[in-house]
Design brief:
The chain is an alpha+beta fold and about 180 residues long. The chain is about 25% helix and about 25% strand. The strands form two sheets. It has a five-stranded antiparallel β-sheet with strand order 6-3-4-5-7.
């Protein structure tokens, strides 16, 4: 299958290339998703460039990336499901994050197919395009976690969103409203 290959750190134009890799095989609690859209956010840039260097020590790979295919946020159609998957069936439209644990690593979303834990997915709403759905996971999770999780924002409280024009800020404004 076709995928964006990342086998060394550096500027994206210098280190990313289109290539062929084996199609992933989903584990028992994973689904194989045919990727229809994937998004890019700052975390992907950090992983591709390997900067800051501490991220390499934190599990991304010291001298080169441990995982070959970048990208984490994606949307697509379930192709097949592992034997323990109860939530999704082939043909279901889904979106979510393709990471397997560590945040600062390649997740494999920049490929035709990606194996994803059923717990990292949600059903794609009918009125949302694949491209729109792929832009939601990381930014949406960060905004939700900071406002509803850590921030414990309640109705009637005032919220200042510094940077409301970016991905996280856009979601933060909507959640705050």
């Amino acid at each position: 299958m076709k995928a964006v290959i990342h086998d060394k750190y550096g500027a994206p134009g210098d280190v990313l290339r289109l290539g062929e890799i084996e199609k992933p095989v989903p584990g028992d609690d994973e689904v194989l998703v045919r990727v229809r859209a994937a998004s890019v956010h700052p975390d992907v840039w950090h992983v591709v460039t390997g900067i800051p260097y501490i991220l390499r020590l934190m599990g991304g790979g010291l001298s080169k990336p441990k995982s070959q295919v970048p990208g984490t946020d994606m949307a697509g159609v379930v192709e097949s499901a592992g034997k323990s998957v109860s939530e999704y069936r082939p043909g279901d439209e889904v979106f979510g994050e393709s990471l397997k644990g560590f945040q600062w690593a390649n997740g494999g979303a920049f490929a035709e197919y990606v194996a994803v834990s059923q717990n990292a997915l949600a059903g794609k709403p009918k009125g949302v395009t694949f491209e729109q759905a792929a832009a939601i996971p990381t930014s949406g999770i960060i905004a939700h976690h900071n406002l509803r999780g850590l921030g414990k924002v309640q109705a009637g409280q005032r919220v200042l969103v510094n940077g409301a024009g970016g991905g996280v800020g856009t979601f933060a404004v909507q959640i705050a409203v």
